[in-house]
Every structure is written in C-alpha cells, then in structure tokens.
Specification:
By secondary structure, the protein is mainly alpha-helical. The protein is built from nine helices and two strands; from the N terminus they run ααβαααααβαα. It has one domain (7-132).
Length: 133
Amino acid sequence: MTTNESASQSQLSTDLEMLHARVKGKSLTLAELKQSLKGRGSAMLLVLLALPFCFIAIPGLSTPFGIAICLIGACLVIGREPWLPRFIMRRRLSTARLAQLLTGAIKVARQLEKFVRPRLAFLHAGPGMLRLI
C-alpha cells in the first residue's frame, strides 16, 4: 500500500486532529504543513489557503493566496507535484493562525465526512482520472 493509498484510507478529520495535537504551541511554514499532511499535502494546502477567506476577509492576502491556489491547481492538472515560490512556502503561520486554520479545517472535514464517502473507486483509480478530477 502506498502513502497516497494509506492516506486515503484514514479519515481526513482524524489526520488533521493528529496534526493539530502534534503542532500545538508551534508555528509551521507552509512547506512543513504540506509535508506533514503526507499524500494529502497538495489538496490540503489548497483547502488551508482558501479556508481563511471562507470566514473573514483578510485585506492584502487574497491576491498572493489566490495566485498560490492557481499555481497549485495548474500543477495538479498537468500531473506535476505542485511547486510554489520559496517565499510562499517559507511563509510561517503563527501558532494562533495555525490553530485557527486547523480547527476550522477539522470542523469542515467532520461535516463533510457525514455525507462524502469513497464510491465507485474504479472511476478514479488511474492517474489520468485523478488529473481530470
């Protein structure tokens, strides 16, 4: 079983709770956060970059975060590991902001897991289908 397969077998909310407990009282860079999320790093990085804007508007951050989201999405579409400039990946999330983001992500993941379950796995088993999705 590969890392991606094992990551997809566990619930996202459980993985986020474990990460939250592990980083309590620490700050992380976006690169460290992506790495700690294993195979879900790219997808979760997209969610975490977009999540703050779902609750409140943060003046001045929407443009750089939006560019980062576009770059990640474009890399995923062409089948490459997402690349972001070092200055973005080295951006450190404060302990308070990280706790806020992870708490929000855990709540959203729990709600989504009530309705969203893996179905028709054969339709997204190949790398071409994952790119399309």
